[in-house]
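Deliverable D5.2: sample structural annotation.
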Amino acid sequence: MESQFWKLYKEDRPSCSVVMKTSTGLVHLLACLLEPFMPSFSLEVLKQLNLPLDAQNSLSDENCNIERAKRPWEIIPAGHKIGTPAPLFMELKDEEVEFYREKFADRIVKAEAEAKKVTEKLKEAKILGKKDRPKKSSEAKAKAPSDTEISISRLDIRVGLITKAEKHPDADSLYVESIDVGEPQPRTVVSGLVKYIPLEEMQNRMVCVLCNLKPATMRGIKSQAMVLAASNNDHTKGV
């Protein structure tokens, strides 16, 4: 009953208002969380919600407090008018799905074959390396197969908020960022993105952060993680 707003609209207007405000707030939170992966999607969501476009990075307030995100019914103010709703994704018909499956089948097979070759080479390299090492106990040998497993689950990738970004005092091509990744203290991260992303676009930005790297000192400042970024084809602009 609580989620059937069409019934609540007729029978319990106050409850209907809470359901609608909560639902709209959750849509806004999802747009914020997906912005590092699907920026154009998040931008379109904000347009349809009729919210400022710079709100896409505001999971927290100006003091980096995320308490507001715990109360989604308070995100959209009372009386707010949303924009014109429209489908965000195009529905693919069965024949279109089959067309794209056939079109990219060769690429998929080739990619899987390449991935298999790389995996085999890595395993072979580890096996060859182990032959030169001193023999270990039987207990250690029993654990050896797990060392060859390659899994993306080993990567600790988190969505973080850049609370502060500035130029490295001793390197023109480096930024020094303070990034909130949900820990008691923000992490200091050094990134070589000066040539690709303007400093003002680094401020208060949601980014993907690889957190389980060994800290490395870069021009006198210890970097405690890595900001993941992509670029266009000619590597002139980063995203």
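Annotation notes: The mean pLDDT is 81. Residues 105-131 form the longest helix (27 residues).
The annotation will be released with the project's public dataset once the embargo ends.
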